[in-house]
Amino acid sequence: MKITEHINKAKGKTLFSFEIVPPLKGQNIQKLYDNIDPLMEFNPPFIDVTTSREERVYIKKEGGLLEQKVTRMRPGTVGICASLMHKYDIDPVPHVLCGGFTKEETEYVLVDCHYLGIENVMALRGDAMKHESYFIPQKEGNNYASNLVSQINDLNQGKYLHEIIETTYNSNFCIGVAGYPEKHLESPSMASDLRKLKEKVDAGADYIVTQMFFDNKKYFDFVKAAKEIGIDVPIIPGIKPIAIKRHLNILPQVFRLNLPDMLVNEVEKCVDNKAIRQVGIEWAIAQSKELKGAGVPVVHYYSMGKSDNIKAIASQVF
Ligand code: FAD
Question: Residue 231 sits in a domain of what CATH number?
C-alpha cells in the first residue's frame, strides 16, 4: 500500500515508522532483523531502507602498496526491501539516490522495485562522497532530487528513458522526498530551500519526510511556511534520539542543525553514555508526544541500526 494510503486509512491517528541502514558488506542480515523484531509490536506500516553512497577504500597490495578503489560498502537496499516484505509483510521504502547512479541504472532499480511489488520510493539527491567537499552529479545521472522525482513520475506514466519501449502496464510509485526544517546545509536561505522543496512536489512527490530536528517549533514553523507556498502533501517529522556525547558536535557539524540549550545542558551534566541515552530517550518522548498531540500523520525515527532506544520511546508514545 502507498504511504499516502496508510496515512488516509489511519484517519488522523499518528503512525509509527522508522528507517534502517543496510549492514556492511559481509555482515549477516540477522542483526538487522534482531533490531527490527522489537519494534514490530508498534505496528509500523512501512520501514525505510537507506542507500549509501559509494566510497573510497584502500586495498593493501604486495610490497606495502595501497590500491585505491571506489565501492559501495552497504549495498543491498532493494534486496533488504524484498526480505522485509517477505518476513514482516510490511511496505518497505527503498531510498533511491541521484549520486553515483546514471539515469539508466536508476531505471533498472525502479524496474526491480516494480516487479517486486514495492509501491513506495524515497527520492534523494544524496550527499557528497566522503572525500569530496561538495556534491558532484554522476555523468548521465540526475543532478537534483526534483529531476529524480520527474524520472520516477515519467515511469509512472509509462515513459522509459528510451522511446523504443512499448508499455502496457505502468508503475505507480508513491514518491517521498526530504525536507529540512532548519534548511538544507547548502541552501542560501530557508525561502530558497522551500521553493526547491515545492519543485519536488510539483514534479510529483506525494509526501515529505523531514531531516531530524530537536525543537518542535522548527517543524511547526516549517510546515506552516510550506503550506503558505502551496505545499499540500503530508510532512512527516523525523526524530533521532541523542545517544552519545559526540552527537552534540557531530549533528550540528554534519547536518547544520541547532540543538536546544536545555538539551545540551542535560547531556553535559551526564556522567556516562548510559545517562546520555536516557536524556536522549526522554527528549524524544517529549518531542513525539507533542507532535502526536498536534496530529502529525506519522512520527518517523532514525534508528541508525539500534532499536533499544526507539523501543523505549515508542512504548511511551504509541
Ligand atoms: P535536493 O532536494 O536535490 O536538494 C539539494 C540542495 O540543492 C538543497 O540545498 C536545495 O535547496 C538545492 N536545490 C534543489 N534543486 C535545485 C536547483 N534546481 N537549483 C539549485 N539548487 C537546487 N542520503 C543518502 O545518501 N542516503 C539516504 O538513504 C538518505 N536518506 C535520507 C532520508 C531523509 C528523510 C533525509 C532528510 C535525508 C536523507 N539523506 C540520505 C540525505 C540527503 O541525501 C542529503 O541531505 C542531500 O544533501 C540532499 O538531498 P535532497 O534529496 O534533499 O536534495
Answer: 3.20.20.220
